[in-house]
């Protein structure tokens, strides 16, 4: 792999690393090197990455990690949705303990969101290999495809396929940023729609799934703790809203009688922030993606499409917020005498983390002198889809200034490695249960 010398990630990670954290078969330098090698794939000049789901870049990142998995002694397989599963036999057969995350990114993403969870899960295996530890139960490291959703405006695609949480209708409606169907995207990726459907596995083969992720907030930074415990995962819903007007010449079309889709969209967009306030303290709604057609400086916009990301840690208020925003969009379209198209691309149930698992995570944290900090996750994760069927747990690693989905995303190597030690202890405890 050619090295991009404008990427100082490895040196920055190692600069302040505390080598006393290298013990029990866990090595910070290996994590720093692997984070750096992944950061080279889809590298963007501002320091982050661009690795959309089902892209060549995501596939290249998976291929690299698959090599590391095989070198660690894992049996590696890939399903029709591009999910990677690497399995280590235990002393006994039966249900496996699993951990992992994703390697795709948002269009202007950072180097830790996703890869840290994958490398943490793999480092546990590396530590066992070095120390000669053989787990009582099978262990799996999983990489899920297209977690971020930048491909289809609908996230968690891989874990939805693995759990069977995506319907035939949802599959048929998916269109990517080039207007291609799921079937067309899969063909480019090297799979088929039938193979994608066949990716559904019996999730009950897993006893427990635990995911490590950077905190997308500042609670750990404020508490001055490296690692925290997730109490629950907010369920995301993605509402796609289109306003359809009439194109016309910007100079020759009188203001009276215009059907400007962008004016209607702007009114809707401006009204959105007021709705979550009337729902709950944890409800949020965000428009981060907006497309204007035909997007010409001297053309009245014919169509505007936006994606409204709606979340809450409880399902009922989240769904009430969806209904209110749908009603508002329809009301504004009628006011401007233009049609609207509204569809819900994603609706995932919030997932609480069982108190027993939180207590066991707390016990692992305390072994390393960490005071447990309990944090609800406003962001969605693949653990949500698995959590509909099996127990799941999550650990957050401290993130500088709470920044994520941004090239400035940063977690120190000390905090990353501390998180791996906690994960290893928790998994080994789960192996004995």
From TrEMBL:
Residues noted as binding Zn(2+) 1 in the record, renumbered to the chain: 102, 113, 213
InterPro entries: Amidase_Cbmase, Bact_exopeptidase_dim_dom, Peptidase_M20, Peptidase_M20_dimer
Keyword flag Metal-binding: yes
Cofactor: Zn(2+)
Domain Peptidase M20 dimerisation: 232-336
Gene3D superfamilies xref list: 3.30.70.360, Zn peptidases
Superkingdom: Bacteria
Comment on bound cofactor: Binds 2 Zn(2+) ions per subunit.
Binding site for Zn(2+) 2: 113, 148, 405
A Pfam family recorded for this sequence: M20_dimer
Keywords for this protein: Hydrolase, Metal-binding, Zinc
PANTHER family: ALLANTOATE AMIDOHYDROLASE (PTHR32494:SF5), ALLANTOATE DEIMINASE-RELATED (PTHR32494)
Family affiliation: Belongs to the peptidase M20 family.
Name of the featured protein: Allantoate amidohydrolase
């Amino acid at each position: 792999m050619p090295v991009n010398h404008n990427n100082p990630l490895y040196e920055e990670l190692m600069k302040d690393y505390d080598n006393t954290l290298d013990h029990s078969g866990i090595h910070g330098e290996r994590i720093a090197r692997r984070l750096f090698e992944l950061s080279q794939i889809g590298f963007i000049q501002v320091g982050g990455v661009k690795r959309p789901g089902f892209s060549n870049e995501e596939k290249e990142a998976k291929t690299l990690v698959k090599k590391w998995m095989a070198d660690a002694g894992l049996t590696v397989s890939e399903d029709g949705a591009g999910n990677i599963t690497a399995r280590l036999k235990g002393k006994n057969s039966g249900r496996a303990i699993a951990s992992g995350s994703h390697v795709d990114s948002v269009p202007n993403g950072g180097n830790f969101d996703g890869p840290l969870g994958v490398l943490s899960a793999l480092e546990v295996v590396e530590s066992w290999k070095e120390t000669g530890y053989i787990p009582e139960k099978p262990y799996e490291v999983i990489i899920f495809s297209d977690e971020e959703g930048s491909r289809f405006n609908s996230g968690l695609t891989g874990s939805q396929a693995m759990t069977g949480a995506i319907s035939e209708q949802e599959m048929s409606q998916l269109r990517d940023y080039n207007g291609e169907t799921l079937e067309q995207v899969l063909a480019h990726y090297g799979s088929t729609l039938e193979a994608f459907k066949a990716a559904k596995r019996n999730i009950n083969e897993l006893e427990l799934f635990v995911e490590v992720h950077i905190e997308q907030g500042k609670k750990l930074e404020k508490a001055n703790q490296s690692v925290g415990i997730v109490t629950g995962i907010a369920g995301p819903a993605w509402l796609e809203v289109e306003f359809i007007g009439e194109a016309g010449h910007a100079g020759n079309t009188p203001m009276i009688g215009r059907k400007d889709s962008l004016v209607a969209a702007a009114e809707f967009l401006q009204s959105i922030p007021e709705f979550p306030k009337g729902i709950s303290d944890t409800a949020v709604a965000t428009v981060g993606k907006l497309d204007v057609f035909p997007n010409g400086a001297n053309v009245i916009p014919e169509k505007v499409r936006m994606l409204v990301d709606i979340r809450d840690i409880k399902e009922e208020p989240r769904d009430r917020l969806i209904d209110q925003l749908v009603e508002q969009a329809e009301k504004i379209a009628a006011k401007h005498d233009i049609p609207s198209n509204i569809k819900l691309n994603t609706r995932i149930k919030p997932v609480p983390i069982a108190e027993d698992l939180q207590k066991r995570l707390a016990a692992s944290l305390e072994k390393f002198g960490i005071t447990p900090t309990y944090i609800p996750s406003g962001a969605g994760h693949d653990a949500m889809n698995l959590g509909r069927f099996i127990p799941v747990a999550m650990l957050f690693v401290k993130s500088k200034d709470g920044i994520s989905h941004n090239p400035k995303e940063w977690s120190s190597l000390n905090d990353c490695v501390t998180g791996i030690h906690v994960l290893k202890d928790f998994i080994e405890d789960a192996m004995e249960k």
